[in-house]
Amino acid sequence: MFNYFKKRKEVGLFRTKAKTDSPQGLAKGVFQKDLYFFLMEASWTKLFFFVFIIYLISNIFFALLYSLDPSGLSHPGESNFLNYFFFSVQTMSTIGYGSLSPQSIYTNWIVTIEAAFGLIGVAIITGVIFSKLSRPYAKILFSNKMIFSLFDGQKCLAFRLGNTRGNEIVEAKVTVSALIDYKTKEGKDFRQILNLPLKRNYSPFFTLTWTVFHPVDETSPLKDIGVDSKKLKGLVVTVSGHDGTYSNTVYARYVYYPDDIVFDKYFMDIMEESSQGVMEIDYQNFHTIV
Predict the structure, then answer these.
(1) Which whole-number Å values give the CA distances from 96 to 80, 183, 225, 231, in the listed order?
(2) I need a labelling partner for 191 at 20 to 30 A (CA). Which of 61, 116, 251, 282 fits?
(3) 82: which residues sit within 8 A by CB, 6+ positions away?
(4) In b/e form, how buried is each residue of 198-234, taking b as 16+ CB within 10 angstroms?
(5) Are 151 and 120 part of one and the same domain?
């Protein structure tokens, strides 16, 4: 029902490419991304695949080092690369079944280095996974359309939010910014970000749903260019607040494009009171417009 992790296409708005002619481009601070940043931003599939590949390559590397001393291990049967590889796996993970053991000084030194490498590697990966798991996310659902219709006799842009966790987001705040292209007096093309005033941009607690309105009146930045103007490139919505469960600040962002604006329509009512007096939300019709 809910597509939490689907990312909006943001072609032309937020896809950015750094271009520099300097050989020290990264040293100059152009989009520096370290390994920790990559692992934190990567999906769980990419993270586990990366860990598996590093684990596999590391054991192959140490197996090659063990193979340099064919008599360095005591083991039943003949020496082969698989024996060295599995001994590396047992050493790195500190399993130690006992059937394979180091015999020479050279092999014992390699075991010492690999054991330290394994302990440090496990600590690093554990820290990354814990950090990734403990990051708070706001499970906020945005209506896939924004409507432009009359509300109380006034033309308004409106969209709907839903807190799909059902917990309390305290002191929730919403900001809506319009990305508008315009030409300066000097003839330069420029893209500006203008904040749109809302009827209510603050809620003491956000538990169920919230319909956000921007009146397109005399004070609206959209009054002069029009809601359907080609100068309007997008509307960026950000929601932030204090999550009562995580005891931490959470946020969510969504981008509406001009094609997402529907004229002279309304959202279907999705709230009703149950027989027990509890407010219920029909999320199946959350995006329905009538």
Answers:
(1) 19, 71, 72, 67
(2) 251
(3) none
(4) beebebeebbebbebbbbbeeebbbeebebeeebbbb
(5) no
Residue at which a domain ends, from 83, 100, 134: 134
> What radius of gyration, in Å, describes the C-alpha atoms of the chain?
29
Rounded distance between C-alpha atoms, residue 137 and residue 239, angstroms: 12
Q: What is the pLDDT of residues 221-241, one digit of tens each?
A: 888 778 877 888 999 999 999
Residue 17: the pLDDT is: 58
Task: Write down how long the chain is.
Answer: 290
pLDDT of residue 96: 78
pTM of the model as a whole: 0.70
Residue at token pair 């004229």? 263
How far apart are alpha carbons 155 and 7 in whole angstroms?
A: 30
How many whole angstroms separate alpha carbon 196 and alpha carbon 238? 12
Residues 245 and 168 in one domain: yes
Structure tokens at 15: 């896809």
CA angle 75, 78, 81 (to 5 degrees): 90
Parts of the chain with a pLDDT under 50: 1-7, 9-11, 23-31
The residue among 111, 134, 157 that closes a domain is 134
Domain range for residue 108? 35-134
Which residue carries 């300066």 as its tokens? 184
Give the DSSP H/E element, type plus range, for residue 121. Answer: helix 105-134
Say if residue 171 is in the same domain as residue 255: yes
Task: Please write down the long-range contacts of 102-110, taking CB distance under 8 Å and 24 or more positions apart.
Answer: 102/72, 102/73, 102/74, 103/71, 103/72, 103/73, 103/74, 104/69, 104/71, 104/72, 106/68, 106/69, 106/72, 107/66, 107/69, 107/72, 107/73, 110/62, 110/65, 110/66
Question: Are 145 and 240 part of one and the same domain?
Answer: yes
